[in-house]
Amino acid sequence: MNILSTNNISFTYHGGAAALSGVTLDIPEGSFVTVCGESGCGKSTLLRLMKPALTPRGELSGELFYCGELISSLSEKRAASEIGFVMQDPESQIVTDKVWHELAFALESTGVPVGDMRRRVAEMSCYFGIEELFERDTASLSGGQKQLLNLASAAALHPKLLILDEPTSQLDPIAAQGFITAVSRLNRDFGVTVVIAEHRLEELLHVSDRLVVMEKGRVIADCEPRGICGALAADHPMMAAMPVSVRLYSLGGGREAAPLTVREGRSDPVCSAAAATLPDPYPESRAGGELLLSARELWVSYGRNQPDVLKSASIDVKRGRVYAVLGGNGSGKTTLLKTLCGMIKPLGGRVKRAKSCACAYLPQDPCELFAEDTVKEELSSVCAEWQPTAERFGLCGLLGSHPYDLSGGERQRLALAKLMLKQPDVLLLDEPTKGMDAAAKAQLCQTLRSISDDGADGAVGAAVVLVTHDTELAAACADICGLLFGGEMVCEAPPSEFFPDSYFYTTPLCRMRR
Amino acid sequence: MRSLERAHPLVSFLYLVAVMGMTVFTRSPVLAVQSAVGASLLLMLSGSGRLALMIPIFAAASALTNPIFSHNGVTVLFFVNDLPVTAEAVVYGAVFGTVLAAACAWGICAVRFVTSDKYIWLFGRILPSAGLVLSCALRFLPLLTRRARSFAAVQGAATLKQQLHTFSACVGYSAELAMSSADSMNARGYGSAVRTSYSVYSFGRRECIALAAVILLSVAAVVMTVLGGGEFFYYPALSELKTRPADIALYISFGALTLLPTAVILREKMKILNIE
Predict the structure, then answer these.
(1) Residue A398 counted as domain residue
(2) Would residue A177 count as lying in a domain?
(3) Which domain holds residue A480?
(4) Closest CA to B193 of A483, A506, A110
(5) Chosen from A44, A87, A110 to mutate, greatest number of chain B CBs within 10 A
(6) Contact flag B192-A104 (C-beta cutoff 8 Å)
(7) Residue A185 and residue A327 in one domain
(8) Which residue, among B24, B18, B102, B10, has the nearest Cα to B59 in the 3D structure?
(9) pLDDT digit string (tens) for B15-73?
(10) CA of A232 to nearest chain B CA: how many angstroms apart?
(11) A485 CB near a chain B CB, below 8 Å?
């Protein structure tokens, strides 16, 4: 029995290009379907069409059936309770101030009686292990906890179908893994059908039954995850988004049964042969020039009774180098960046700056940098000579758009361009790959290398410090990597030494080779 | 303390309305002092005893300043620049200051013990959507403040004009994000049925007793006041403190009312001591 089926649907936004063309999908009850594709491929549109309350406005042709009924004919209440939806941003999905109220929100809205509601809320908080958070303010939760709460709140309605639109793109890898585990438990324990769109597939593929790859509004592959190498060519751009074992298997010429995890990859002959022959991804490690920032033994705390966030952290930032800071949540990475650029004053130690050294800080959410109504105004508000920079960052086609209408990758490029117009000596980036697809990541990586290189016109390269959870990005663009733990820089080494020597903070490729 | 934090919203709310109402509308110095003592004890027991110091400071400040503005009264203490400073004005100032400070102290206790979710419970009974609006506002306002701070820090606005520009950008961005909050509400069936209201509070025997005590004591105090208990005049001359049965009954019922939370905390502390 198909819980959801689409029959040749096409969709066009008002006054826009076609977002979907001729999509036909059958989703059997109880399956776990992963949808992937580059930004703007139409996967969000497809997912929103499956949820009546969120159907976008535009021209729709073709039919969508839910349990054999036309989806538009479902009653509002049934659609709300049987189809759960979790979106990308953990923060803005939460509407109330207390965790318990958020859990009960959907139940209150659909008019579940109080006795029944108490049981369901209790069950859900036990099932997701959030009893301890029950009386907390939602504002005090971490991103991962917020997203788990959003999932629990949707699950409290006992949905038959759960749709998730890039739910882990704003989370760190460990929180993301926890979230995916929770979703796959729902699928396994209760037979909830799951449709999930995501850029990061490393943790997702081995729990999925089906992988749907989309490109320009069409489904270009619809198969079991293991069969993906047969459906996509090894040099297809979407291959870059696949887990490393799949990429290696495909490079090695494998077609039928791709290994989905590092464990399977290591025991697969095709995959491990390809891993051994693949050249290292690390770029040449530059020695760097002038010392721009030198921080010695920084101690930072956010208040009298607060714990120290940085404890004796030291870092040297040199011109012409990319420094990648890795580390877990709460290790003080963001605090280190803010201290380096002077937004936070350290309690102990100091940041020595070279003469007339200008720092630019790119926050985790690039939108915090925007203040104008169009991309063009955004750039021209900084300086009059903005055209060459706009060209360099590929923004020429977007000049008339509103900054908030851009995709994650485009926003990041605009923010970078805006900062680069001020010609900073040090560029500080906080989690720049959050919510980006593989193509945008590769592009960012190139940009960061070119910013730190000396220009052909005699311009000297800037120093780049980036804080990231993305080990693959660090491996591909950093000259030196540092591991921050417990507020202290525990080790520092060029990627060619850092990653092969690390056990956990390393790229999946290194794990394949160990 | 825990039992006050966990007290039923209806009990806490009625209690505060009664105590604060009596405190603000009374003219009796005895009631003012009783209220001040009750509030100070509660502040001290809940670990912010320093705030209780504001009551005598307020009273003294008001006692010293009132004679500057008011020259009524018959008992002239001395003259300043030919203007009389009267004992009545000093006393009235002191009582007025005490009342004001006591009301503030109860307000602090209210913020501490009647948390947002209790208001939401109260209003959610009467109008489920009003409760929800309140809850959303309580979530949104701190969020907006935090976001505004982070916008200001990142954009480094220097002049007032720039700061306003940054703030308006922040409000615009919040509105943009609110679209996805609205989506999230719709996705979870907002408005698809008649709303029910979840409650973390239950109304048992303990709550019945507490509610009965609050109602009994406050009704007694109001009735005694209506019967003329606690009558007091400051001008032209201070009236005597009367001790008719109505006055005594008023002092006892209001005194008991103000000491109720202190008694609850002390009883709890005793029990904890016994356990340990």
Answers:
(1) no
(2) yes
(3) 291-358+424-513
(4) A110
(5) A110
(6) no
(7) no
(8) B102
(9) 999 999 999 998 899 999 999 999 999 999 988 888 899 899 999 999 999 999 888 88
(10) 34
(11) no
